[in-house]
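Format notes (please read before filing issues)

Several people have asked whether sequences and structure tokens are stored in separate files. They are not. Every record keeps both together, in the order shown below: the sequence lines, then the token lines. Line labels are part of the format and must not be stripped during preprocessing.
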Amino acid sequence: MNDTPKYIQQKQFEIIIAKPLNERLNGLFEMTELSRNILINRIKTQQPNLSKIDLQIELFKMFYRFDFDKETLNLIAESMRKSLMQIDE
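Then the structure lines:
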């Protein structure tokens, strides 16, 4: 849904770009962390018994589901699982 008029979007952009770089980066990091926490809570609600490793795998899959085809995503996830299990040992 995109119902914001172009002139408002332009004004938002101007306000953001006028801020110092460190403020823009901090805002970006905060939004990224917020979205990460929202996704983690969503995963935990849908699958409450996941291990920490499986939670990380599911989070990865959610973030990158549009960047890789399903087969590649699953191959990467399995490789991650093996690596994380070795670290966890």
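For reference, the curators noted about this record: Helices lie at 6-18, 21-46, 52-64, 70-88. The chain has two domains: 1-48, 50-89.
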